[in-house]
């Protein structure tokens, strides 16, 4: 304790001066350590051959170069990185890292450099963690694919394009799944499918375009996008099938829904992405089941009508009803129906054969909307099964009927079935598929043999 204020002030001044001198000497010492030390002067030699050795010893001096880390921006770099990360200035942080990497690019890895690198690497890990969090679904779902662009681009600049790709696609998968779940299932199935296709394929298209922008220089990431697209398509088909096929919608509704999905899928060709084969592969099982189920319905309905067959002409009662039937048969492809109409409102055909014709042609038209190569045999076998029910019924009736007048009427129906309906089915199938069906040709030829020998017992009822 000083005796008075004056002595106290003098002591404080001395103390401050000592601190300043010590800080100055410490700074000079650090500067001297950072500066390259001159090599000791070798003693003069009179040996002329030592000159070459001296030149060789001077060459590795570059490796002993000491990196100048006393620059102000380098000294403050760790703290500046902390500030950039805290303020979410990701671009500024990566710019600082690029500047440091450029400065240290050709410099030797001395101990001070290693220590600086360790400090910077810790900040890089922190920055990466923040960018990863920015790409989490909780952070950037609402802004669409572009909301991820900032974080993705900085991760790519940090040399982590693979991680950026993985996180971007995970983010978009969660966004698509959320959008599908938020769709309300209300009204007609076709209306819901229109909404589902719009939401899904628009998201897929936007994601593909954003991916192409963000990862334009990273060709290795494109295979990951294709895998992601296939996985997303499976998620879409699950929602699609649950609403269309699991709810046992009619074949016509299913055909319209599949048509809508195919049309939306073609939009992806705008960016050179064709996923049609994927949607075919994922839907083939459900469409097979729908075709076979509807085939069974037609067969049961045909058998039921056959069991009640009276082989009588149809009386439509009114010209309007006859005109409507003419239009229906014309839409089925039957152009010669007028030759089977009689006076007034009579039709010289059985109700069973007419109903079979309309139902079979309707099945074929809807099935062709669902058609793709993987379904060829399923559709063909279903048609053959359906036709056989009618063919065998007519053949059986011809062999069993004893009344000559009624037998003549059965033959007229058989003629309509064999010479008009079967060729129309065969022609329409070939138009829709693009190639003839030998099984249908063989069926028609076998039916012709039955007509030649109506007493044959080879047909099975």
What do these coordinates show?
By secondary structure, the protein is mainly α. Among the domains are: 72-134, no CATH class; 186-274, Up-down Bundle (Methane Monooxygenase Hydroxylase, Chain G, domain 1); 288-452, Orthogonal Bundle (Tetracycline Repressor, domain 2). 70% of the residues lie in helices and 2% in strands. It contains 18 helices and two strands. The chain has helices spanning 5-34, 50-58, 72-75, 77-86, 90-103, 111-134, 137-140, 149-157, 161-181, 189-214, 222-244, 251-266, 276-307, 319-331, 351-370, 376-400, 404-433, 438-452, and strands at residues 313-315, 346-350. The chain has a two-stranded antiparallel ribbon. Helix 11 packs parallel to helix 13 (276-307) and helix 12 packs antiparallel against helix 13 (276-307). It is rod-shaped. The N and C termini lie far apart (127 Å). Mean pLDDT is 82; it is low at 48-64 and 451-461. One of its GO terms (cellular component) is exocyst. InterPro entries: Cullin_repeat-like_dom_sf, Exo84, Exo84_C, Exo84_C_1, Exo84_C_2, PH_domain. Keywords: Exocytosis, Protein transport, Transport. Residues 20-34 have a biased composition (Basic and acidic residues). Pfam families: Exo84_C.
């Amino acid at each position: 304790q000083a005796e008075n204020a004056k002595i106290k002030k003098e002591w404080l001044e001395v103390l401050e001066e000592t601190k300043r001198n010590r800080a100055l000497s410490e700074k000079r010492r650090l500067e001297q350590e950072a500066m390259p030390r001159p090599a000791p002067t070798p003693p003069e030699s009179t040996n002329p051959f030592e000159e070459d050795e001296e030149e060789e010893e001077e060459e590795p001096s570059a490796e002993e170069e000491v990196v100048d880390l006393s620059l102000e921006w380098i000294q403050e770099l760790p703290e500046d990185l902390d500030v950039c990360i805290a303020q979410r200035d990701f671009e500024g942080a990566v710019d600082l890292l690029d500047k440091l990497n450029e400065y240290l690019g050709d410099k030797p890895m001395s101990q001070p450099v290693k220590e600086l690198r360790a400090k910077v690497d810790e900040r890089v890990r922190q920055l990466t963690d923040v960018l990863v969090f920015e790409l989490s679904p909780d952070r950037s779902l609402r802004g669409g694919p572009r909301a991820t662009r900032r974080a993705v681009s900085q991760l790519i600049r940090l040399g982590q394009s693979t991680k950026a790709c993985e996180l971007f696609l995970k983010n978009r998968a969660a966004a698509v799944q959320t959008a599908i779940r938020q769709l309300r299932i209300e009204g007609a199935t076709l209306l819901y499918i229109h909404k589902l296709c719009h939401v899904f394929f628009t998201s897929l298209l936007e994601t593909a375009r954003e991916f192409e922008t963000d990862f334009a220089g990273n060709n290795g990431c494109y295979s990951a996008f294709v895998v992601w697209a296939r996985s997303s398509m499976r998620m879409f088909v699950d929602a699609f099938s649950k609403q269309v096929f699991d709810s046992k919608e009619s074949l016509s509704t299913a055909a319209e829904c599949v048509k809508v999905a195919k049309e939306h899928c073609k939009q992806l060709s705008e960016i050179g992405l064709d996923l049609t084969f994927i949607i075919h592969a994922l839907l083939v099982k459900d469409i097979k089941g729908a075709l076979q189920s509807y085939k069974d319905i037609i067969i049961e309905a045909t058998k039921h009508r056959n069991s009640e067959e009276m082989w009588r002409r149809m009386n439509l009662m009114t010209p309007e009803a006859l005109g409507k039937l003419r239009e229906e048969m014309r839409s089925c492809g039957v152009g010669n129906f007028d030759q089977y109409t009689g006076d007034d409102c009579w039709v010289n055909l059985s109700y069973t054969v007419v109903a079979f014709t309309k139902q079979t042609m309707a099945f074929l038209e809807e099935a062709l909307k669902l058609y793709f190569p993987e379904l060829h045999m399923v559709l063909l076998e279903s048609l053959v099964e359906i036709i056989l029910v009618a063919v065998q019924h007519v053949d059986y009736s011809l062999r069993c009927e004893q009344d000559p007048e009624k037998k003549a009427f059965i033959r007229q129906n058989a003629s309509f079935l064999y010479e008009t309906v079967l060729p129309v089915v065969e022609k329409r199938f070939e138009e829709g598929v693009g190639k003839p069906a030998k099984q249908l040709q063989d069926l028609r030829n076998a039916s012709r043999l039955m007509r030649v020998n109506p007493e044959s017992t080879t047909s099975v009822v």
